[in-house]
Amino acid sequence: MSSVELKIQRFDPERDAAPHWVNYTVPVEPMDRVLDVLTRAKELFDGSITFRRSCAHGVCGSDALMINGRNRLACKVRVEQLGKSISVAPLPGLPVIKDLVVDMDAFFGKYRSVLPFLVAEEPAGEGERHQTQEQRDRYDDTTKCILCAACTSSCPSFWAQPDYVGPAAIVNAHRFIFDSRDEAADDRLEILADEDGVWRCRTTFNCVDACPRGINITKAILEVSSAIGSRR
Amino acid sequence: MSGRYSRSGRPRPVGSRVDLYVWYAVRISSLALFVLALAHFAMTHFVYDPADQSAEWVRQMRWSSVTLRALDWGMLMAVLVHGFLGMRTVLQDYVPSRLRRVALGILYALALALFVLGTQVVLTLKIG
Ligand code: SF4
Ligand code: FES
Questions:
Q1: What is the pLDDT of residue A85?
Q2: In a domain? residue B69
Q3: Is A174 part of the contact surface with chain B (CB cutoff 8 Å)?
Q4: What is the pLDDT of residue B9?
Q5: Residue B2: which pLDDT band, with cuts at 50, 70 and 90?
Q6: B chain contacts of residue A228, beta-carbon cutoff 8 Å
Q7: % pLDDT > 90, chain B
């Protein structure tokens, strides 16, 4: 078993005035992911190391962290891809609750603000609401979001202006705006046609880089901006 | 706006078209600049000899053509629109909200002054 130098940004609100780095030398297996290394450090050295995880397979979106300076899922990046020294910090731009756990309330509040659900008040009639393959393809990319917040917390526009609704909320608005069965596209466009809505996107592309699902987020944002432009 | 808007998140948005127009203006002026600035570059470096181009020369030669004068004015306007709207973005991002109004006010006043001054020079500079 070889080992890596793991550096974790730690913060205990009851003891620390500010976050600080703590180093651990952690034994690793060749196929380990960062999540495995964090778990091992917790088991071997300090049970109080705090982080979120659930599925451990890139599905739930709970373990997005800043790993070696980039936002990614701890359960999707292998130690082998990073080399001998690994730094792990909480997602930037979000309030830290403890160690690697950030407060996601405002993030989910913005998500909820864009009506992220199907609005179809007309009864479906007999059977299901049908869609052609093309109609489904229209918003396919944005269905993949797992709400990990890697995108929003990597966005300099969001760091500068925390009121910005952020890429994740726009991605989830896009998911329904372009769904042929949905009836609330106009409401969502109005919600996003705001100074702190889509217009805060400065096309930096950090979100695209960060997204563990490979969503072309900037394209989705620009599609929403254009839809606002061609409305009315 | 229907009642579906969730209050759990952001405050209710204020419906304004200004940001939409700004968004288009930035993009359209950048397209205009792509053409005009390249044309300007070609003109000053290849069509005419850069060594000849004193202010006096510009006045006598290049601006004796109304078309070239109009093109130069167009470029000036595109630069001003693009540059000032870019600065607006920077102020919106980095100036704290209590100072933002003042900062934007100063920016708009400066922009207006340069628009007027630039247009006045282009319109009134005498040839000859
Ligand atoms: S768009 Fe990508 S990076 Fe952003 S929250 Fe969804 S999955 Fe995460
Ligand atoms: S633990 Fe679920 S995405 Fe990583």
A1: 96
A2: yes
A3: no
A4: 55
A5: very low
A6: 20
A7: 49
* Residue A77, number of CB atoms within 10 A of its CB: 20
Helix (H) or strand (E) holding A41: helix A34-44
Could you give the 3-state DSSP secondary structure of residue A5?
A: strand
Residue type, A73: L
pTM of the model: 0.88
What residues have CB less than 8 Å from B31, skipping those under 6 apart? none
- CB-based contact, A119 to chain B, within 8 Å: yes
Extract the tokens encoding B108: 């708009």
CA distances from A63 to A29, A59, A75, A96, B127 (A): 20, 10, 7, 14, 69
Q: Is A43 exposed, middle or buried (0-12, 13-18, 19+ CB in 10 A)?
A: exposed
Q: Is residue B2 part of a domain?
A: no
State the amino acid at position A40 in one-letter form: R
Q: Is A222 on the interface with B (CB under 8 A)?
A: no
- Domain containing residue B65: CATH number: 1.20.1300.10
pLDDT in tens, A77-115: 999 999 999 999 999 999 999 999 999 999 999 999 999
Asked if pLDDT for residue B10 goes beyond 70, the answer is no
By most ligand atoms within 8 Å of CB, the mutation choice from A65, A102, A171 for ligand 1 is A171
Looking at A134-148, B46-60, B99-113, which range is the least confident one?
A: B46-60
- What's the pLDDT at B57? 85
Please measure the distance between the N-terminal and C-terminal CA atoms of chain B and give it in whole angstroms: 61
Q: How many domains does chain B have?
A: 1
Please answer yes or no on whether A113 and B89 come within 8 Å at the CB atom. Answer: no
Domains and CATH numbers, chain A: 2-102 (3.10.20.30), 105-230 (1.10.1060.10)
pLDDT attached to residue A212: 98
What the block records as the tokens of A92 is 């930037």
pLDDT band for position A195 (cuts 50, 70, 90): confident
Burial class (CB in 10 A: 0-12, 13-18, 19+), A153: buried
Tokens representing residue B117 in the block = 């001054």
